[in-house]
Write a structure and sequence with these properties.
The chain has 373 residues and is α+β, with helices and mostly antiparallel strands. It has helices spanning 2-37, 39-45, 47-58, 67-71, 76-94, 112-115, 166-169, 210-216, 222-225, 236-246, 256-264, 271-279, 281-288, 290-295, 297-314, and strands spanning 129-136, 144-151, 171-176, 184-191, 194-200, 218-219, 346-349, 352-356, 365-367. Strands 6-3-4-5-7-8 form a six-stranded antiparallel beta sheet. A three-stranded antiparallel beta sheet has the order 1-2-9. It starts with a helix and ends in a 6-residue tail after the last strand. Bound molecules: heme C (HEC) (5 copies).
C-alpha cells in the first residue's frame, strides 16, 4: 500500500516535472529561435566571424532589414532548415575552425524570389536610373572629375520586359561548375516547350551533356547579380571620394586624397595600425603646409576622423577579408559580373555557333555627354 502510494507520487511528480520541462523547452526553443533571428545574434555573437558582413550591412541601404529577412524568409520549413544548417557554423565558431573568409555564394540561401520580393516587385520596375559618380585625382588640388550614366534597368512582365531586369521576367537558366559561379559554361532561355535559345562557352572543350545541364542548372535570380545587395564592400578610394563629395573630408586640403589613399592601399595589417598611420597626416600639414595647419585644424581633424571610418569599413584582417574578397556581380569593373556571359558566350545554332551575347557599351548604360552639375 505504501509502495503503491510512493509509485503514484513518483509518477505524479514525473508527470509534473515533465510538463514543466516541456513548457520550458518550448519557451526556450521559441526564445532561442527568436534570439538567433535577431540582428544582434548574427552580428554580435558571431562578432568575429561575421564582423565584415555585419559592418558592411550597417552602412548599406538594407541596414534596417533583419538578417533573417534575407537569410531565412517566412515559413516554418526554411526556419528549421536554416537553424539546422546553422549548427555546423555555431560549432565551428566555438572551436575557431571556420573558414576565413566565409565562403560565398551561400549554398542553401533561400531563393531570392521568396525573400527580396517580399519588399521589391520586379514587375513594377520600369525606366532608368541615373548614376552620377564623382571622383578626385591624387594631385595637390584634388581635381574633381564627374561622370554620369543612365542605367537601363527596365523591367516589366513577360513579353514586354526589357533591358537589365529582362533576366527576371524571362526564365534564364545557367550552369556554372566553379564554386564561386564566376565561370559560366552554358545558358538557356526557356520558352514554351523548351529552350528557345542556348549559349555556350566557345573556349570550353567538349561541352555539357543534356543530363549534366539538367542536374546542374540554376534559375537566374536576384542574387546572381545583386550578390552584394547589402554586404557591400567598397574600396577605400570609393569611400574617400564619397566622403569628399559629402564634405566630411575637406577637398580644399591639398593632397588630402593622396595622403589618405597612400595609407589605405594596400590594407593595413590591423585597424589600430591604420588609425595610427592616419593620425600622422597632421604632421604632413604641419611640416609641408604650416599656414593651412594653423588655420584649418578643425577640418584636418574631421577629415582624419572620417578617414578612420573608411579604414573601419575596409580593414578586416582577422577574417582575411578586404574590399576585393567578394566580387560584385552587378557590374563588370573589378570582377567579371555581367561579362561572365556578355561578350563571352556564343549562341548555339543548328549550324554550329552564332553571335556572341551583346556587349556593346550602350546595351546597359548610356554615358551622359553633359554631366549634371
Ligand atoms: C537584403 C538582404 C540581406 C540582409 C538583410 C542580410 N544579408 Fe547576408 N547575404 C545576402 C545575400 C544575397 C548573400 C549571398 C551572396 C552570395 O551568395 O553570393 C549574403 C551572404 C552573407 C554571408 C556570406 C558571406 C558573403 O559576404 O557573401 C554572411 C556571413 C552573411 N550574409 C551574414 C549576414 C548577417 C550577419 C546579416 C545581418 C547583420 C545579413 N547577412 C543580412 C543578403 C542579405
Ligand atoms: C524587408 C524589406 C526588404 C527586403 C527583404 C529586401 N530589400 Fe532591397 N531595399 C529595401 C528598401 C527599403 C530599400 C531602399 C533603401 C534606401 O533607399 O535607403 C532597398 C534597396 C535595394 C536596392 C537599391 C540599392 C541602392 O543602391 O540604391 C537593391 C538593388 C535591393 N534593395 C535589392 C534587394 C535584394 C537583391 C534583396 C534580396 C536578397 C532585397 N533587396 C531584399 C527593402 C528590402
Ligand atoms: C541581370 C542582373 C540583375 C538581376 C537578375 C536583377 N537585377 Fe536588380 N538591378 C541590376 C542592375 C545592374 C541595377 C542597376 C544598378 C544597381 O543598382 O546596381 C539594378 C537595380 C535594382 C534596384 C534599384 C532600382 C531603383 O530604381 O533604385 C532594385 C530594387 C533591384 N534591382 C532589385 C532586384 C530584384 C528584387 C531582383 C530579383 C527579382 C533583381 N533586381 C534582379 C541587375 C539585376
Ligand atoms: C548568365 C548569363 C548572363 C549574365 C550573368 C548577364 N546576362 Fe544579360 N543577357 C543574357 C542573355 C542570354 C541575354 C539575351 C541575349 C539575346 O537576346 O541575344 C541577355 C540580355 C541582356 C540585355 C538586353 C535585354 C533586352 O532588352 O532584350 C541587357 C540590357 C542585359 N542583358 C544586361 C545585363 C547586365 C547589366 C548584367 C550584369 C548585371 C547581365 N546582363 C548579366 C545573359 C546574361
Ligand atoms: C551587360 C551590361 C553592360 C555592358 C555591355 C557594359 N556595361 Fe559598363 N556597367 C554595367 C553595370 C551594371 C555597371 C555598374 C553600374 C553601377 O553600379 O553604377 C557598369 C559600370 C561601368 C562603368 C563604371 C562606372 C563607375 O562609376 O565606376 C564604366 C566606366 C563602364 N561601365 C564602361 C563600360 C564600357 C566602356 C563598356 C563597353 C565595352 C561597358 N561598360 C559595357 C553594365 C554593362
Amino acid at each position: 500500500m505504501a509502495d503503491a502510494q510512493i509509485r503514484r507520487a513518483k509518477a505524479l511528480f514525473l508527470m509534473f516535472a515533465g510538463a514543466i520541462s516541456l513548457m520550458l523547452l518550448v519557451l526556450g526553443l521559441y526564445n532561442l529561435v527568436a534570439f538567433t533571428d535577431s540582428v544582434g545574434f548574427c552580428g554580435t555573437l558571431c562578432h568575429d566571424v561575421m564582423y565584415p558582413q555585419y559592418t558592411a550591412y550597417q552602412a548599406s541601404p538594407h541596414s534596417r532589414v533583419a538578417c533573417a529577412h534575407c537569410h531565412v524568409g517566412s515559413g516554418a520549413d526554411y526556419l528549421v532548415r536554416s537553424k539546422v544548417t546553422g549548427i555546423p557554423l555555431i560549432f565551428s565558431t566555438l572551436t575557431d575552425s571556420y573558414e576565413r573568409p566565409i565562403p560565398t555564394p551561400v549554398r542553401n540561401l533561400r531563393p531570392a524570389r521568396d525573400t527580396c520580393e517580399q519588399c521589391h516587385r520586379p514587375e513594377r520596375f520600369a525606366g532608368d536610373l541615373v548614376r552620377v559618380r564623382t571622383t578626385f585625382l591624387t594631385d595637390e588640388t584634388n581635381t574633381e572629375v564627374t561622370d554620369a550614366r543612365v542605367l537601363k534597368v527596365g523591367g516589366g512582365q513577360d513579353e514586354v520586359a526589357r533591358d537589365i531586369h529582362w533576366h527576371i521576367a524571362a526564365n534564364v537558366w545557367f550552369v556554372s561548375q566553379d564554386a564561386k559561379r564566376q565561370e559560366i559554361d552554358w545558358v538557356g532561355v526557356e520558352g514554351a516547350g523548351g529552350y528557345t535559345r542556348e549559349y555556350i562557352d566557345p573556349a570550353a572543350t567538349g561541352g555539357l551533356t543534356p543530363a549534366q545541364i539538367n542536374s546542374e542548372k540554376r534559375l537566374m535570380d536576384c542574387i546572381d547579380c545583386h550578390n552584394r545587395a547589402t554586404h557591400i564592400f567598397r574600396s577605400p578610394e570609393y569611400l574617400v571620394d564619397a566622403a569628399m563629395v559629402e564634405g566630411t573630408i575637406d577637398k580644399s586640403l591639398p593632397f588630402i586624397k593622396k595622403e589618405i589613399t597612400d595609407i589605405l592601399y594596400p590594407a593595413q595589417p590591423s585597424l589600430e595600425q591604420a588609425n595610427a598611420a592616419l593620425e600622422q597626416i597632421k604632421d604632413f600639414y604641419r611640416v609641408k603646409y604650416p599656414q593651412i595647419y594653423n588655420t584649418k585644424q578643425a577640418a584636418i581633424d574631421k577629415s582624419i576622423t572620417e578617414a578612420k571610418n573608411v579604414a573601419r569599413l575596409t580593414t578586416f584582417p582577422h577574417m582575411q577579408v578586404t574590399w576585393e574578397t567578394y566580387g560584385n556581380n552587378a557590374a563588370h569593373q573589378e570582377s567579371p559580373g555581367c561579362f561572365r556571359c556578355h561578350g563571352k558566350l556564343v549562341e548555339k545554332t543548328a549550324a554550329g555557333t552564332g553571335p556572341t551575347i551583346d556587349v556593346s557599351c550602350d546595351l546597359c548604360h548610356v554615358e551622359l555627354s553633359q554631366p549634371l552639375k
